[in-house]
Amino acid sequence: MIPPSLPSFAQERRVLAVTAEDAEGGEPSGKTIPMVCLVPGRVDLAALEEAVRRLILRHPVLQYRFVEDGETVALDRVGVRAIHCEVTDAADLVTGDVSRKAADAAIDRYVRTRLDHPFDVLGWPLVRVGVVRGDPTVCYLSADHLVADAWSQSLVSLELPVLYQTVLTGAPDPLPPPADFFTFAAAQRGRFTAGAGLELPMTALRRSLGGRLLHPPFGLDLSWDETGSRYERRHVLDAGELAAVAAWCKELKSTLFMAVVAAFGAALREVGGVREAGMLIATHNRDDDRVRTGIGWYANMLPLYFPVTGDLASTVREVRRALMATLEFHELPLARAAGELPPEQARDDHPTCFLSFTDDRGSVRADGPVREMVDTAMEHGWSRDSMPPARRRGYGMWISLRDDGLGFAAASPTPHGSGGRLAELEAAFAEALVNMRPPSW
Q1: What's the CA dihedral at 113, 73, 54, 284 to 10 degrees?
Q2: CA within 20 to 30 Å of 427's CA: 31, 54, 241, 262, which one?
């Protein structure tokens, strides 16, 4: 019986990788998950700090620090302590008489630096919270990827307004009981440590890879400035256009996720000339209601390769075929799989491409155990401002379905002299999605 106080495979791998980089004198590796909300009026700082403390109290994964000892990683429970909120005035970030757009851009740049600032992976807490006081007030919370993923990001944006309001009013906490990430991590370790639980999905993975790399290289030949960052946000489809794409998918017996992946493959073909697209895709392991309400690193990355044809419908069919084969091993942790493959196949020292896809529509959330959280967050006037996680090695795109349509946030290191190709890629991706229409439309 594996105790629930052990980290997951992904957490262990990240801690060991970061501490190894530190020992070699490398730059701190920042893998942060951001949450940004716009709040009407002024924020009660003491109430916000208490709300974050209660957030930590709700979620066990936020109450531990990681302890590294050679080749092993353990957990040490810190518990719940007071949280200090960073405070900045918007007026201090804006110099001179500038437009509202320029002022917003200055605030955005500042918040970005705070979101991306690396955590000490052996320290505590692995979250930070701050506000930029203005009209509206910007509230930001950043967490190391060790304790959060994109789904967690969505949960925090729902839970924090609710907890803040309960502090102000003294009302009872209406949130549903949270899932415990370490129960999930213990079950993962118990299943994939050895035996048939590991052997069967590894066989499926090897068959799917067919000798290819576990971490697919980015389809565009670019050189990167690892000291800089590029971020892009774009709204691609409005609600009506999204409905048209959904209808097109229905005719093809596919899903919106398959269409998004196919559109990205089509963009790689148009801009980079690829005939086979390869990318890491994120699965969030949240189909079970017992884990839907948990903050933690539940997300898993899977390698997906598929041929890209000149026809979008054909490419969607290829994605569906490849994805069905890939999902056979969707619970197999990528970090665990890497240790079972030959080093030349498991290497991850090159820029990769990865896609994350989340459904943040209120109508969808209302079907699960977070129904009341959606309504309560909207009641209090907090609006979520989507920002991409801190850039990794290579190119990442986080696609989100919202009530107002579909948008994405992208992050990467700064390309050397060829940033225009990334802009071309994103424009081609958007165009491919817009062009997905049923014949009757």
Answers
A1: 70
A2: 31
Average the pLDDT over 382-390 and give the result. Answer: 79
Nearest Cα neighbor of 40 from 394, 301, 373, 383 is: 383
Whether 219 contacts 305, CB under 8 Å: no
What backbone torsions phi and psi does residue 228 show, to the nearest 5 degrees?
A: -115, 170
- Please write the tens of the pLDDT for every residue from 55-95: 999 999 999 999 998 888 999 999 888 899 999 999 999 87
- Give the span between the Cα atoms of 191 and 388, in whole angstroms: 32
Q: How far is CA 3 from the centre of its chain?
A: 27
- HSE-CB for 218 with a 13 A CA cutoff: 24
Model confidence at 375, pLDDT cuts 50, 70, 90, reads low
Contact 354, 396 (CB under 8 A): yes
The answer to whether 240 touches 340, Cβ cutoff 8 Å, is no
> Could you tell me the two tokens for 52?
């974050």
Task: Read off the pLDDT of residues 355-370 as tens digits, 9 standing for 90 and up.
Answer: 998 887 764 444 454 5
Residue 410 is inside which H or E element, if any? strand 405-415
Token pair of 141 as six digits: 């919370």
pLDDT in tens, 309-341: 989 999 999 999 999 999 889 889 999 999 999
**Model-wide pTM > 0.85:** yes
Q: Which of 60, 65, 48, 85 is nearest to 162 (CA)?
A: 48
Distance in angstroms (rounded) separating the CA atoms of residues 179 and 174:
15
For residue 224, give Cα distances in angstroms to 25, 209, 229, 395, 410: 21, 27, 10, 10, 15
Paired with 231 in beta bridges are 411
- Give the burial string for 183-221 (b: 16+ CB within 10 Å, else e): ebbbebbebbeeeeebeebbebbeebbeeebbbbebbbe
Query: Higher-confidence residue: 377 or 77?
Result: 77
Is there a contact between 180 and 4 (Cβ–Cβ < 8 Å)?
A: yes
Residue 7 one-letter amino acid: P
Q: Tell me phi and psi for residue 175, to 5 degrees.
A: -75, 150
3-state secondary structure of 353: strand
pLDDT digits (tens, 9 = 90+) for 420-437: 899 999 999 999 999 887
> Which pLDDT belongs to residue 363?
47
Model pLDDT, residue 429: 97
- 38 CB contacts (<8 Å, ≥6 apart)? 136, 137, 138, 139, 382, 383, 385
Query: Residue 250 and residue 245: Cα distance in Å, rounded?
Result: 9
